[in-house]
Each structure stands twice: as structure tokens, then as C-alpha cells.
Predict the structure of Delta-1-pyrroline-5-carboxylate synthase.
Amino acid sequence: IRCWSNIPFITMPLSRAHGKSFAHRSELKHAKRIVVKLGSAVVTRGDECGLALGRLASIVEQVSMLQNQGREMMIVTSGAVAFGKQRLRHEILLSQSVRQALHSGQSQLKDMAIPVLEARACAAAGQSGLMALYEAMFTQYSICAAQILVTNLDFHDEQKRRNLNGTLHELLRMNIVPIINTNDAVVPPPEPNSDLQGVNVISVKDNDSLAARLAVEMKTDLLIVLSDVEGLFDNPPGSDDAKLIDIFYPGDQQSVTFGTKSRVGMGGMEAKVKAALWALQGGTSVVIANGTHPKISGHVITDIVEGKKVGTFFSEVKPAGPTVEQQAEMARAGGRTLAALQPKQRAEIIYRLADLLTDQREDILLANKKDLQEAENKGRRLALPLLKRLSLSTSKLNSLAIGLRQIAASSQDSVGRVIRRTRIAKDLDLEQVTVPIGVLLVIFESRPDCLPQVSALAIASGNGLLLKGGKEAAHSNQILHHLTQEALSVHGVRDAVQLVNTREEVEDLCRLDKLIDLIIPRGSSQLVRNIQKAAKGIPVMGHSEGICHVYVDTDASVEKVTRIIRDSKCEYPAACNALETLLIHRDLLRTPLFDQIIDMLRVEQVKIHAGPKFASYLTFSPSEVKSLRTEYGDLECCIEVVDSVEEAVEHIHKYGSSHTDVIITENEKTAEFFLQHVDSACVFWNASTRFSDGYRFGLGAEVGISTSRIHARGPVGIEGLLTTKWLLRGDNHVVSDFSEQGTMKYLHESLPLPQRNAS
């Protein structure tokens, strides 16, 4: 056990045979020996005179954290010239002011010209100060640092190479962080050379080539190159068509146009790519990323080591299929083609998918059986609720097919439906029409039946779709996606629905704000919360919790109470629309009805937790609830006592999740008060909470249940996957015609809507 920043933790067992670079980002967490190269733009301030101290401190903190995890960290740093320039300028200003005062006899300073400072002199003046700064920063984390200055000659002389190698290994053995820099005080100007003609040939002419050479010499697992751009782009950054390249493969250089180098430093992006490819050829993985962005620089190094999608990752292994970015673009193009189809054609695709679910039943169940067996064999035994969600059956597939046919039948006029018509002026008519949202990302756990449901809804609404399922349902998802694409092929839109099979982390998918328009999580409350936290600029539709209440009023029917409570809690306790808190009017305590409720819950083996008020009425009460805001997701529930329907509403607003809440009463006035005042997505009277479902609502299926207060709320079907656009049809109309001196007047007349398809 080591300590870092007074926090003890266990060091990680890190080891791998060097010689081959990592194939995927997810493997970077196994990197033991890491070189971090800090470009001049990262280390220096914007005025190029002095160091960016805050940024440097953050980098030192991250390196220290990784060092204390048991990794071997090395830093290749720039900054000596900038630091020296700051010191020399100060000295020159000071000496000039003294001379001027002596010669003129005046203390007032006049404008003084500062001569151009030679870089080698700046480096000589700055190296000691830069190292002193690093030492002071690393000391805060109980880590020792050591400085090593090198030149190109140190790598060409075999004895010097061995000495350098031995020194670095000894420092790493003693848990010291080596800080390496080119000795800019004596280094000659760079000369043209035959770089990259072999794995042993690269000239050290800047810190990029130094870092690459050092990484290969030291058999480093990972080289992180930090600059002032996000990574490698296919066009110069800032140009309209520039796209960040997530993974760069050897041989892709022809697809890249290099721009100018950064504001400071010796090498531009082309030099970085050459150095990175050379290091990759030598067995070291490389990531080029932005070390200056204020929002990410505080965790950019640790994010890279954790395998997060940051910067450009250099890999020798090219995946067989498209990248997730390419899949998103394919889904958008396919979705637009899908939206342009006739409603009848989209319905035909869904009908075809429904038929395939029943026709290919045996193959689907066989694939599902493989998933269930692997869940057993790999020792990751799933909890019973998750296992139930993972399992498919003939009856489930039949229900799915029925639901899909409902969607097809109800989707005839979903896209392009006119919902408002206004005559703005003579021959100037405005329409508001429904259109698809764009590209949906649906992330779901365990439940493979979600795939055809969501696909059908996306097809009906003309949306492109990216699907990310759990690995526990890989075989089931694969065959269901294949059948979905087979159905889409009926009208040539196979690419509209994509299944993400790459090793993309959910957090990385949530950052694709330029490619994805809406994220819909289907799974545990923890999954939803994680996605809501990770989503960067993309709306998330869903609910993080399903804390559903049933309130039993004094006027409740004895026959209805136990029946509704049993169904709400016991029919499927893992569902998000299952009862979690039972509110009982105080006057019902110690009545036969109350005893019937308790007896029924005991028979169904429901564990009862007592709310604070309920516990106060009992001599021997069940375990008191830890929190009234708990989603159990199992055969457990909380019972609490309230004095009135008003208090029940107040309790629901304070502790509920705005999902589904129920009142059981025969008093219509009380029921209407509850229905009108409870601010939840679904509010029921004398009905089970389990009715909160897209299929049961007649939507055919749902992509989820939303507790959001904008756009869609409650079970979300086709309508929730649509937005609108405005169409204005005119005839040479201009706004100036409607001014006081103009010839036209606004009418703003509401026009009748076209007849909807009666079917």
C-alpha cells in the first residue's frame, strides 16, 4: 500500500511483455511504463514568456497519481526557453533602468527596447529554474524528480546510449520520475536527415522525436503527446471540413492534410505524426491529445490511461467493421432516406420484422440460449431480475410481433403530419409538420427484446438508430439486429439501424454530440444516472428512478386494495413501474383492511420497511426505512402513514421520482384531487402502477418512460421520437411590405388541418 495526497490505496499489478503495441484503447489501462511529452504550447503561457503554472501543476498531479499506482512515469518537457526568456527579459529591463538612471540622473524610466533574445541563451538561463519548479511540485506528492539533458549525439554514440539507458532504468527502479529535455543550450540547428527509413533511425531534432526515441529505447508501453490541438484531424484544425481522427493507422497519412505548426516549439503536427508512427513501429502505443483545454487538461492524462476516447490513438490493428463515428453517419444518412419513404413503405418494413420474429423463432431462441449459458459458465451469474430480462421465449416473441404490428398500423401518418396551418398574409401560408429527431442512441442492459421494439419505433418515426446492448446479450442482439437489417433491406435502408459492436465505452458514446441527437437509456437507475452524468451536450430521455407510490384512502374498496397492491408490487418487482412505497391513511391502521394488506404482503414474501410515522404507531415494527426515496427493485417495499390525501400528495412530491403514482378510493372528489395535483408522468385511479407501459397504453411499444418535463413524458412511443419544423410557402413576399408604409397586412388566420388517415 502506498499513499498519495494522504489517501492510501492498493497499487495495481501491471506487467506486459514489450514488443507489440496495444490494439485498443481499452488496453491502455495495462500500461506500466509511460512517457508524457509536454509540448511548448502546453508548458508556456500565451505570451510565450513564462510558464503556465496552473496547467503544469495539474499535469504534475496526474503524473504523480499514476506513479503512485505503481506505474513508471517519465516526462519529456519543453519550457526551458520560455522560462529563460522571462528571466532574461527581467534582467535586461532591470540593468537598462539602472544604466539609464546613472547616465541621465533621472529616476523616471523611458521606453526601452528589448533586444531579440537568442534561444540557446534563454535555454541556459531557464533550465535550472524549470527543474526547480518541477521538483517543488513533485515534492507535494512525496515524489522525487531528476533532470536529464540530452542531444542527438547521445543516441548515436553507443556508449552514451547505454549510459542513458542505465541511468533511466536506475531512476525508475528507485521510484524517481525522470524529466528529460533536449539540451537547447548547446544543441545545433536541426539538419535535413533521412528520418524514418528504419526502426533504428530517427534524429532527435525536437522534443517530439526525442520522446519517440526515448519511448522505444526504454521499451515504453505508452507515449502521450500533449499539444494545443485535440489530436489529429483529417484537415487543418479550424477548417470547415476538419474532423478529429479517433484512431490513426499506419498508411493513413495520405488522408490527412497538415497545417501550420503551433505558436511555439520546433515541430508541427506532421513532426508529431512521424514521431508517433516511428514509436508505434517500435512497439509503443501513442496518443496525441490536447493538454491546454481548461475543461479537460486537469484529467487528460488519467483519462487516456483509463482508455477513454481522448485525442487520437495510434494503432496497428485496423478493425474489420466501421468505427462508431462512421456507423452514426451511416445511421443519419439511412434515417434521412427512411424518413423520405412513404408511410406505407415504413409500415411494410415493420410488418416484415414482425414476421421474421416468428419465422426465425428457433434461431433467435438458440442464440438466446447461448447468452444464458455463457452467463452461467463465465461465473458472472446474473441476478434473478436481470436473468429474467435476458431470457427470451416463444410467448415473448409472439407478444413482440403483436406489438410491432400495432406500431406499423399506427405509424401511417406519423412523419410529415401537419399539426398547425396559419395564413400569415395573402398567398403566404405557414405549416408546422412533424419530422424525425435525427439519430437516436439507445443503450440497454440485458433485455434483447428491447432491440426490435426500439428499432420498430425508430423506423416508424424515420429516425436513424445506434444501438448499444450489454455484452451479456451479445448473441441475441446480433441475430435480432441481423433480422432488423433484413427487414430494412425491403426498401433499401439497411444502414438506418446500426448495432455498436466495437469496444466503445458508454461514456465515449455520450460524447458524440456532433453525431447523436438524443440518448435513450434502458436499464437500471444506476445506468441512467451514469449516462445523464456522462452526456456532453446531448439530451437524455428517461428516468433515473422509478419510486412509484400507491395511496390507500379511507374510502378505498376492500376488494380492490389487495388486488391492486399485489399486482403493483409482485407481478414484476424489478420493473421501473413497480410499487415501492405504500401510503396508508392513518384511520385505516388496526382495521381489518390493514390486516388484509399486511397478510397479503407476507404471503407474497414481500419484505416490509417502516416509514418514520408508521414505526411510531407500532410497538414492534419492521426495520425502519433508511430513506423514503428508495427504489428496491425486488420483493421489498416501504409502508408509511399519512393523515390526508393532501399529505399523500405532499409526500409523493417530496420523495417520489415523478414516474407513476396511484390512489385507491371510491370517493370521486378525492380521486380527482389526487389526479389533478400529483405532478407525475402517470397518475392513476383504482389501477395498478404496472399499466404505465407503452404496449399497455396502445403505443405498440416504448423506447422508455420519461419523467422529463419537456418534449415527451410518460411511456414514449412514436410521438415522443418526433419533433417539428416550419414550412412557409410564399410568392415574392418580403418583410418590408408589412411595414407602416407597406402594402400588405398580416392576417394570422388559422386554417383547417388536412384529414388524418382514419385507419
User: Anything to note?
Assistant: The chain has a mean pLDDT of 86. The domain at 25-92+118-186+202-314 is CATH 3.40.1160.10 (Carbamate kinase).
